Amino acid sequence: MNSADLLIPEWPAPSRVKALMTTRAGGVSTGCFSSLNLGDHVGDDPLAVARNRREIARLLPCAPLWLNQVHGVQCARADQVAPGTTADASATRVPEVVCAVMTADCLPVIFCDLDGTVVAAAHAGWRGLLAGVLESTLAKMDVPAKAVIAWMGAAIGPEAFEVGDEVRRAFVETDAGAGVAFKPATADGKWLADLYTLARRRLAACGVRQVYGGTLCTVADPQRFFSYRRDGQTGRMAAMVWLSA
């Protein structure tokens, strides 16, 4: 694995905050999971997944806290729970504990504060965004929102994410301005949704003003990214963040 196989956030985080997002390159999985699949729940060879996870662990201070993600809002304390804990986000103030979320179209968001005292990672598909996973993560961080920096990793882009009218209505009912994140799709009753804009609105409503990333579409780049919407059975990437000692 080399640096070209990873996404490194471009954000003004303190030097002790370390973060990265994997792409699909640099592993040993084959077929639709080629090659750095980190998900052990998608039908890939368990031995290949284990090797891929060991390869990633070489870049980290410890093994990531892999969560059982369910499109919910629970944010766990990464230093206090076991791997496999059901949650869609984690946060920590403990150095060298790695918060991680896996995605293959859903939006990964990583967080830190300006003083470098706390970090977090959240898995935010449309259901999680609507239910409040970003708000839950910020609450667990327990710092003023104005002191938080966020980075949005690769996710399904606004030209690829077609949803039904019920999804648009659900967002607009909770935020009248959310309509700007939807535009009519070709099919009747369908809309193209912009997860990045929806996330930015949620974060801004909480008082978070420093938000970076949000330009990479998983569906449009099959060479670099897994995409469930594009391929069906596929692997998972991971976004990770931690504090150095």
Could you please describe the fold and organization of this structure?
The protein is α+β, with helices and mostly antiparallel strands. It has one domain: CNF1/YfiH-like putative cysteine hydrolases (4-Layer Sandwich). Helices cover 22% and strands 24% of the residues. The chain has six helices and 13 strands. The chain has a six-stranded mixed beta sheet. Strands 1-2-13-5 form a four-stranded antiparallel beta sheet, with no helix packed on it. Strand 6 (107-113) and strand 7 (119-124) form a beta hairpin. The longest helix is centred in the N-terminal third of the chain and has 12 residues, at 46-57. The chain is globular.
> How many strand elements?
13
Helices and strands, in order, run as EEHEEEEEHHEEHEEHEHE
What percentage of amino acids are in beta strands?
Answer: 15-25%
* SS-based class: alpha+beta
Distance between the termini: 24 Å
What would you report as the Rg, rounded to the nearest angstrom?
Answer: 17 Å
CATH superfamily: CNF1/YfiH-like putative cysteine hydrolases
Write down the overall geometry: globular
Strand line-up in the sheet with most strands: 3-4-7-6-8-12
CATH class division: Alpha Beta
Uncertain residue segments:
none
